[in-house]
Amino acid sequence: MRTIRRIAGQSKGRSSGTVVGGFAWAVATSEIETDDFYQQTVSTLQKIDRILAEMDTDKSRAVTATVYITDITHKDDMDRAWCEWVGDNPDNWPQRACVQTGLHATDLVEVVVMAAL
């Protein structure tokens, strides 16, 4: 049986990171309250970086990502932050989807990343 390692999330019953079978999953929302989609995305991706590092991997090892946003008309703002985060090397670009959905309270963006170890 494989060992599953979990990193506690901010809310009871949820992990912010999980490692099993050579892969790590991270989920994050912004640590700042603002109505600026770009700033929330930057903050969220910084948090993803910290979670991935805690699991001994990084964004260059990301395989897939799903970005949830509350208003698809702000996708360009999210994309700007995303492209700054992933950088210019296409070898480091994960497969990514963007989905409009409702999120909790002041959260505008939530990101889920799966990365190889």
TrEMBL record:
<protein>
    <submittedName>
        <fullName>Enamine deaminase RidA, house cleaning of reactive enamine intermediates, YjgF/YER057c/UK114 family</fullName>
    </submittedName>
</protein>
<dbReference type="InterPro" id="IPR035709">
    <property type="entry name" value="YoaB-like"/>
</dbReference>
<dbReference type="Pfam" id="PF01042">
    <property type="entry name" value="Ribonuc_L-PSP"/>
</dbReference>
<dbReference type="InterPro" id="IPR006175">
    <property type="entry name" value="YjgF/YER057c/UK114"/>
</dbReference>
<dbReference type="InterPro" id="IPR035959">
    <property type="entry name" value="RutC-like_sf"/>
</dbReference>
